[in-house]
Design a protein that fits this description.
- This is DUF3456 domain-containing protein.
- Pfam families: DUF3456.
- InterPro entries: DUF3456.
- The protein has a domain of about 100 residues.
- Helices cover about 60% and strands about 5% of the residues.
- The protein has 5 helices and 2 strands; from the N terminus they run αααααββ.
- It has a two-stranded antiparallel ribbon.
Length: about 160
Amino acid sequence: MYNTQSVLSSSMTYWLIFMVTVGFAAYIDKCKYCSLVVETFKAGLKKTENQHFAGGNTDWEEKKLGKFAKSEIRLVEIMEDLCKMKYLDDSNGFRDVKDIEFKCQQLVEEHEESIENWYFHKQLSNPDLMKWFCYEKLRLCCDAGHFGADCKPCPGVDK
């Protein structure tokens, strides 16, 4: 028959594998939430790239309000549509994550100041929002060939 120690050891091994798998899946999901923030932000930038202040006197508006391209009004318009997959040309990469729009919106609420900071101050020096926000600032995603919360190199992958 089975000895108790062997059964316990096997059970613990399966439990650890399960926990690592669940933890890894949650980590991947958080990266996808962040990716959705970035992709919908980029879609908002594209959607508003040819817009301007709607007052009719462009010269006065630009002198008094600044350029629309870097305006708070544009940022507000973009922020209103964050995490809404319907604004993406291709949202298939996000459909497999349960409650992604809701969880993405939670991420935006928690880190709204960072997004605003990038928009107003970091955009020129760090044009890759995904890298700056998801990889470096929040550390929710890893470069290819790395994994986990610490972004450790994958075993067997040459640098």
